[in-house]
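Bumping with the actual sequence this time:
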Amino acid sequence: MKTPAIFQKYRRDVDEKIKFIIHDHNSELYKMMEYHLGWLDVNGNSVRDNSGKAMRPALCLFSCEALNGDINGAQWAAAALELTHNFSLILDDVQDDDRERRHRPTVWAIWGKPQAINAGTAMHILSSYALAQMKTCGVSFQKQLQAYQKLDEITLNLIEGQYLDISYEDKFDITVKDYIKMIELKTAALISGSMEIGAAFASEDETVTSNFKDMGKYLGLAFQIKDDILGIWGNQNETGKSSGSDIRRHKKSFPIVYALENAPERLKNELVTIYAKKRMSEDNVNRILEILDEVNARESAQKFVETFCDNAKNNFGNLQLGQSAKSDMNDVIEFMAGRNY
């Protein structure tokens, strides 16, 4: 499925803002950040862009522009959001022992966990540097303060979500409701906050900004559950991960949680027994795939994705926006529901 046009529309401007912030500092620490962002190779040489979707800053700027707002100041907030997202990824990789991201070794896999923690923490601080640039664009003090407060709130939610995710690693009594709460904090909070911040640059109407906030929440929930589907059944040529990769890593993603809650006792016990093993064989992976198939976990996960996308559509329908904005958001919603990477 084709990537929505708005993911690229604002990309250059946001990257320029981030580079302005990072290039103001000159040490190997910042080279690690540029490596993570996909701009440099491990030797510090420029490479063809290997970065992520930059979805969060794009949704921030889309929300502002859809309401006919001036995106100049919002671009700095968008850059701060992208820095916040990437700081969380660096630290997630450390905590999850993930050695690969975006088809390349993770920061900690190259420089070690202590230095990766330094790079991630510094990137978080740089998000505040980015927000500080809003004043150069004439953004009012009140809107600056709102952006700072919202980004702090988002970051705390991310950390709480990661705390819950880690706490679930040794538990087998997690419900779908528990899982939704966790990803609402860990994943959806940043997407929701991105749209709310962008809308707030253009509108003082709390009903309008609340609709963008809720729309972002539903898109974030759909995005994460779709990620979970692809982490088990995705095509390796599209995702860069082998089929069943999340199972091999013992991840309790949505399909696994769904099976734990909904499988007959016999299958649930078998699933728990296999997942409790330190090392999982290919036979174990295949058996789990069979169990997931028996309880229709994939189809049920996709239904949740589609329901959340429908909820996002309902919020979007509450807004009086131009045809171009409607078309762009419909593309985003369709991408969330049907993407294969």
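The tokens above came from a reply further down the thread. The mean pLDDT is 95.
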